[in-house]
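Running log. JK asked me to keep both predictions on one page so they can be read side by side. First protein, sequence followed by its tokens:
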Amino acid sequence: MFGVPISLVREVIRVPQITAVPDAPGYIEGVINLRGKIVPVIDLGKKLGISGEQQPQRANRIIVAEIGDRPVGLIVHSASEVLRISATEIQAPREVFTEAGMDYISGVGKLHGRLVILLDLQKIVPRTELRTVGQTPGTLVTVDAGHRSPSA
């Protein structure tokens, strides 16, 4: 179970149609149109290296978070509840993990016998990775990148 700061979460939505972005890293699923705003969507499991190829499920959600000054969608298996964890129940990551490269973990919380890994979204999704995803030119031509069958 993972936790993200509620102060960064703008909303939690069902997974809509996602438009793929060519040449994007494998964890970037694409972009969505959220009330007129283009929002890049990241598969959090793929980004953290904890999920393989999985089929979409009804419980999947997108957490729309504000990272820097722009919205970013994070696909998660489910979003279950808002929890309050006392600072005395949170251990610093360096007390738990010695592995280098895990700086995206801001702590590990203990809550009613469960452990919650607290994530630093600013470190998981650096703004530089999203700079070109979702940017659109002023004039464009639409094309279908699919393949035609030989009989067509």
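And the second, directly underneath as requested:
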Amino acid sequence: MEPFLGEHAVRLDDKGRLFLPSKWRPGFAEGLVITKGQERCLYVFTKNDFRLASDEIDAAPITSRRDRTYSRFFHSSAFDQSPDRQGRVLVPATLREYASLNRDCTILGLKRRLEIWDTAAWQSFQEAEESSYSDRDDDPEVVRTT
């Protein structure tokens, strides 16, 4: 499967559905899982990639409070979905509320997952975090590609 890449503007309809970008739809033919992400966005995984992410989370020690908490949020908010024939996916009301999704949304392709953001929140996040992206060159742990 090709990685999910790019940024797409989409709109929620009155029923809380949005269209997946057509180039990504084949990756979700077997269904998908939507769950709470970090920074108040939503994560969207193929069913297989959700299993892989879930396995990584489950590998953490149960004695770690931080890991238990993350697992609770990640798994308890997960919803199985299947796109309809038009490529629409219902975003459950609890997840729309969590991510403050209104009409205008942005979907990001992040290789193995998608993120759904309220467009205004995504723009604010970019403005607030751009300097950390620019300053990454100063991080000695970063692997250089040039």
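Observation for JK regarding the second prediction: The mean pLDDT is 92.
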